[in-house]
Amino acid sequence: MRMSQKKISLILWITMLTLFSLPSRAQLYSLTSTDFYIYFDSDSYVVSPEQQDLLTSKILQIGGTNIKEIYVEGHTDTFATAQYNQVLASKRAQSTVQALVQMGVPDRFIKTESFGESQVISQNQKENRRAKIFFIYETDNKSRLSPPKFIVIKTIDKKTKKPINASIGFDYKDQEMRFATTSKSGISGTFEMLGEELKISASAVNYLSVYYDVPSSDIDKPRDTLVYTLELAKVKITGSFTFNNIYFFTDTDEIKPESTPELHKLLALLQRNSVSFIEIQGHMNYPLDRPMNAIQSQYNKELSYKRAKAINDYLVRSGVDQKRLTYVGMSNSRMKFKFPASKAQEDQNKRVEIYTLKEI
């Protein structure tokens, strides 16, 4: 089969960028998503040249090397039997995958699902004979700073001064959080700063999390890269407590009023343990059989972090010294029930855990 010049150019473009684009500075990217549809003739699963060109143009618009995940759904109209349409939808999804692979998209990025006639969206049957393509891709966050400024984070053991592999959070004002890690050498990539107001957090297993507010005066310094070393103190756990009745409004870090009795119990606990360091862990319920993609994963991590911080902020307002408190979002990484079978089990997954810590 003879490929068009446009398709050849796209494959070469994706391949060359993948092989040779090695930027000297890392970027903090934001994940975004978009839906795209291609349509099929009745009783057909062949991607027509016209639909192929539309798909090619969409990938060119996104940028081939920015794509992180693609979900392809196959759908049909309501003609024929449900069993026949399920098979046809699957073939449409696979044909779409083949079209993407021919354009140079790695097949490891692509996942498929077929719905047959179960998700009809229009009385016009032509619109039901479709493949839905859900792209997840990176968009470069342009710095608000002029001239641009970059940042590097180093994480070390407070006592030994040896490097630590740590998780890093970049919490910019009025922006989505960004997450990264330091390597075994304890050094992060070089990231472009996205704004002037930035809180950096660093956390590692068996260490006390630390936080650092970048001083506004540093932004005005006559150098393009700011380097910060965060020292993490090693700790041991001296106690653990679980609070299942702290509730948040859906998809927010706003604590519900009915959480007040549990918050009072938490505050009393901290007042009894007035010399211990405290780690607040926010946990989420997100069963492993639910669809997960890069955007959902980032969302879960950010929301659990902000909910843990909301508990932290409540305790500080109630008189607890911020120097005693640390907080970390665990997303759904430590669910008690990976496949919850009841609301009670779901509630135990979305809990707050408190650990009392002692520096060693």
Taking all residues together, what is the mean pLDDT?
84
User: What's the name of the CATH homologous superfamily of the largest domain?
Assistant: OmpA-like domain
Number of helices: 8
H/E element string?
A: HEHEHEHEEEEEEEHEEHEHEHE
- Output the CATH class name of the largest domain: Alpha Beta
Question: Could you provide a short overview of the structure?
Answer:
The chain has helices spanning 5-20, 49-62, 82-102, 125-128, 216-219, 260-272, 294-317, 343-349; strands spanning 29-39, 67-75, 110-116, 130-140, 150-157, 167-172, 178-181, 191-192, 198-203, 210-213, 225-232, 235-243, 277-282, 325-329, 352-359.
Model description:
A hairpin with a 6-residue loop joins strand 9 and strand 10. The chain has 8 helices and 15 strands. It has 360 residues and is α+β, with helices and mostly antiparallel strands. It has 3 domains: 5-13 and 25-140, 60s Ribosomal Protein L30, Chain: A (2-Layer Sandwich), CATH 3.30.1330; 150-232, Immunoglobulin-like; 235-359, 60s Ribosomal Protein L30, Chain: A. The model is unreliable at 11-28 (pLDDT under 50). The strands form 4 sheets. Strands 1-4-2-3 form a 4-stranded mixed β-sheet, with helices on both faces. A 4-stranded antiparallel β-sheet has the order 7-6-9-10, with no helix packed on it. Strands 12-15-13-14 form a 4-stranded mixed β-sheet. The longest helix is centred in the C-terminal third of the chain and has 24 residues, at 294-317. Helix content is 29%, strand content 29%.
What are the main properties of this structure?
single chain; 360 residues; alpha+beta; 60s Ribosomal Protein L30, Chain: A; Immunoglobulin-like; 3 domains; 4-stranded mixed beta sheet; 4-stranded antiparallel beta sheet; 8 helices
